[in-house]
Amino acid sequence: MFKKNSKNDFSYLNEKDIYLDGACQSLRPLPVIETLETYYKEHNSCGERVKYKWGRITDEKVNATREKVLNYLKLKKKDYFVSFTLNTTYGLNLILSQFDAKKAKIKYIVTSEVEHNSPFLSTISFARKNGVKRKVIARNSDGSVNLEDIPKNSLVVLNSASNIDGRVLKNIKEVIKKVHENSGYIVIDAAQTMAHSSYILEKCDADAICFSAHKMYAPSLGGIIMKKSFEPLIETSFIGGGMVDDVELDSYLLSKDNPEHLYTKFEAGLQAWGEIIALGSAIDWLEKIPKAAKKTLQENEQKVFDFFEKYGSVGEVDKTIEERRLHKGKLHLLNYEPSSTMSFYVDGLDSHLLGEALAEEGIMTRTGYFCVHYYLDHKMHFPPLVRLSFGYQNTPEQIDKLLEALKKVL
Q1: For burial by CB atoms within 10 Å, which of 37, 91, 170, 401 has the most?
Q2: pLDDT band at residue 2 under the 50/70/90 scheme
């Protein structure tokens, strides 16, 4: 299915193009592209607004996607609902900007030092707006957090997988339980989790989960998965068409007041109906990925990790500058273990120039600080990095070409 030169779900790719930037946005397999094309060609219509056949088809498929999202994480419809947004950042801000801290009796807003700017900045804004204390906690090398670092009465915002090195929040269920026992609430940034490590979120009890469809082989789209019991703490102020059942001169009736329409709480205006339906197709596709393809992805990750271990140093994500200088070789990999996301730098070589050199070889990577400026730049003082993020489109031959290109650097 994914072998080089065979007819497969990424057969539209040029063989010379090696895409290693899935942590930004993944490529879309043909079934997902075809689903979006079908919407535009066969039933292009506004959901929940029309009575003609095209609209009914759209409504059915959109509602099916909401259920697929919950089933994908083994969450129950009686406990959660799904709303669609622009992206993870948008979802996090919709929640934090409308969260009633006084009603929830929140005294702290908590996040971690390795967060993407999305939760990092929005928690700063939340603390200023609500007059609560903000606490930035450490993340362990295995991705876990220390439970004792989270105070009582906290609103906690953490990623379930890092966009630096892919490490997952391995004690996520313990964290959620502890937060709830201490009269707090927890929102999970799942942007980097949904494609290759969604198992970490299965049957978890988070109050809200925000994700980006475009990082899980689907079109550009975001989503909020929210516990129904958490919804009353969000005071709706971002409002518009699609969210109301009736409007009078100085008042309105919110659609979300109907328990079956809770999802409208975050869906102001016309939604990206085609993209939502195509997300459902992406979930179907992910759930049918053959074991051989998953094995190939893991083998690709291991091969790259072994290369760095042989020619340089690994596990440098939380090492001091002095400790890094003691490591062998010019190559420095931040990862402690293989992952679909790996970041590195080369002593004496500007990462942006290296990214350009790799691009000349047809190898597409990301360079810089990946929107984790505080931790990577200001705390750890890493130079700009190169990030490799692998996907199901990558073949062993492509990985070999990547490693050959890196050998030229050495």
Answers
A1: 91
A2: very low
